[in-house]
Amino acid sequence: MPTRQQEIAAVLKVVPPFADLAALQAEIDRRIGFIQERLRASGLKTLVLGISGGVDSLLAGRLAQLAVETLRAAGGDAASDYRFIAVRLPYKEQHDERDARAALDFIRADEVCVVNIEAGVRGLAAQLAHLHCLPAPRRDFVLGNLKARCRMAAQYAIANATGGLVIGTDHAAEAVMGFFTKFGDGACDLAPLSGLVKSQVRAMASHLGAPEALVHKTPTADLEELHPGKPDELAYGVSYAEIDAFLHGQPVSEAASARILAAFDASAHKRGLPLAP
């Protein structure tokens, strides 16, 4: 009978460890093909993705750019219309702006635009009386989720305006921990990194030639103003190495296993469709 560890890996469709570089390249090709297939099937021509400066959006962005470039090269009716729009979505001044610019330099998107969400977040927050009476840490957390949702609203507005699909960056290591904002960065039309663990995301980005400083950069959602640059692993209570090992069916400590299982169970509502009678 499958263990919970195996059941979770199956639910998240976790990709087994790459056997060699050929397997890694095959996975890159498969995901580029997936993006192309879904874009063609939609009848649309544009892909939209927010670029943060982290390795997840860096990889997803480069896959998207390669996908549209190949579609254009293949020719056909209106093939020249395929394009990828990379969107910078800072709140005020982003502390790792240099990393975001380096990511854009690597991705080489057809179009880059910048939408600063500060005014929108502040304007909406000012109208929400329920936020005003919250203790500072709780208010900061709620505002962090509001930022993520404003970013996704901006991406969908751009996609609507340009006839496009929104790409997400969720992968198995974040999905198992529920480390995304519901209807925020968890909302998208395509999730080309789905099923990958963090080490695989890094390996694929490195194989494509991404700067190693970005590939191995400490991951952070950077949504909380009281804890700027807070590492994902600090929020998790476990390391990405432990999460990856768990998802690949390898031994982990009892404490790590318990933390991962608890996070998976608590975040089930984020991974499911809305409840209905």
TrEMBL record:
Documented EC number(s): 6.3.1.5
Assembly: Homodimer.
Gene: nadE
Protein name as catalogued: NH(3)-dependent NAD(+) synthetase
Top-rank taxon: Bacteria
Chemical reaction(s) catalysed: deamido-NAD(+) + NH4(+) + ATP = AMP + diphosphate + NAD(+) + H(+)
InterPro entries: NAD/GMP_synthase, NAD_synthase, NH(3)-dep_NAD(+)_synth, Rossmann-like_a/b/a_fold
Function in brief: Catalyzes the ATP-dependent amidation of deamido-NAD to form NAD. Uses ammonia as a nitrogen source.
Catalytic class of the enzyme: ligase
Source organism (scientific name): Sterolibacterium denitrificans
Record pathway: Cofactor biosynthesis; NAD(+) biosynthesis; NAD(+) from deamido-NAD(+) (ammonia route): step 1/1
UniProt-annotated binding residues for deamido-NAD(+): R149, K182, D189, H269, K270
Domain (NAD/GMP synthase): residue spans on this chain: 28-273
